Amino acid sequence: MGPMSLLRRLPPILRALLAQALGFAVLVGLARLGLRFSPFLWVLLQAVLAVFISRSLDLDPRWVFMQAALPFLVRALWGAPIPGWVYLGLFLGLALVFGGGLLNRVPLYHASEDAWAKLESLVPELPGTRFVDLGCGLGGPVAHLAKARPDGVFMGVEASPLTWLVAWLRCLPLPNAHIRLGSLWSTDLATFDVAYAFLSPVPMPALWAKALREMQPGTRFISHSFEVPGETPARVIPVKGREGSRLLVWDL
Ligand SMILES: C[S@@+](CC[C@H](N)C(=O)[O-])C[C@H]1O[C@@H](n2cnc3c(N)ncnc32)[C@H](O)[C@@H]1O
């Protein structure tokens, strides 16, 4: 596999940063050669290079548009009377809320209360049943299930620190709910009777392989809305929410 194919496999955010960095490196090279342009032309050149490199790295049109706009945005804000800590604060805030799902391309959005209720009907009515929400967001499903089923044990794992904190505080009064800060990829699924995830299409093949590897026969895997390519679920349960919201259920 050539270096370009390897680079194209990087998450889009890293490809976008790489495209801007390579574009900027070319500008630095041109400046060192003694070329002098107007500020507008430098910005335009950065935008053109970023677009060109982004397209070579297979970024989709929305990313390419943002790549073109970014140098102009930076130029417009350059010298604006905004203190540096505002940018740092915004960056940290976004990283603490969305950072956990960035590389998997999983944003933060929530299952509806209707989905919580339907999930409840999918948790076997056996005392001590263990359930895990992989990427538990603000902890809505875990808190609901822990209240509805005091005989079960409900775990959430969340990679974004601020999101984790909200879920942890929400579940603090519930003795049978536990929220862990960490990656779903380092969570051993072997001890769970039901594993549930509401992520994005990107991690589904790897998550399915993990579930098959680690979960015991007779346990249940549930995906909110996102299919596992090539794997037909045993049941599909429509739920309220965005168009096409549903629970896909596999009995392993
Ligand atoms: C779409 S939200 C789902 C929230 C909740 N499970 C629900 O059904 O309402 C997905 C969450 O997964 C988290 N996430 C993404 N990748 C993760 C990972 N590798 N490990 C743990 N959490 C992750 C994101 O930070 C986000 O909060």
Could you provide a short overview of the structure?
The protein folds into two domains: 3-81, no CATH class; 113-251, Rossmann fold, CATH 3.40.50.150.
What is the oligomeric state here? single chain
CATH topology of the largest domain: Rossmann fold
Mean pLDDT: 90
Number of strands: 7
Gyration radius (Cα, Å) is 23 Å
Helix content: 40-55%
How many domain units? 2
- The secondary-structure element order is HHHHHHEHEHEEHEEE
Bin the strand percentage.
5-15%
What's the total helix number? Answer: 9
Strand order of the largest sheet: 3-2-1-4-5-7-6
Low-confidence stretches: none
Instruction: Tell me the distance between the termini.
Output: 35 Å
User: Which sheet architecture does the biggest sheet show?
Assistant: 7 strands, mixed
Ligands and ions found: S-adenosylmethionine
CATH class of the largest domain: Alpha Beta
Q: Specify the structural class.
A: alpha/beta
The CATH architecture of the largest domain can be given as 3-Layer(aba) Sandwich
CATH superfamily of the largest domain: Vaccinia Virus protein VP39
Shape: elongated
Q: How would you portray this structure in words?
A:
The protein has a seven-stranded mixed sheet, covered by helices on one side. It has two domains: 79 residues, no CATH class; 139 residues, Rossmann fold (3-Layer(aba) Sandwich). The longest helix has 21 residues. The radius of gyration is 23 Å and the shape is elongated. The chain is α/β, with parallel strands linked by helices. The relative contact order is 0.10. The model has no long low-confidence stretch (mean pLDDT 90). Strand 4, helix 9 and strand 5 form a beta-alpha-beta unit. Helix 6 packs across helix 7. The chain contains nine helices and seven strands. The structure holds S-adenosylmethionine. The site of S-adenosylmethionine has 25 residues, from helix 5, helix 7 and strand 2.
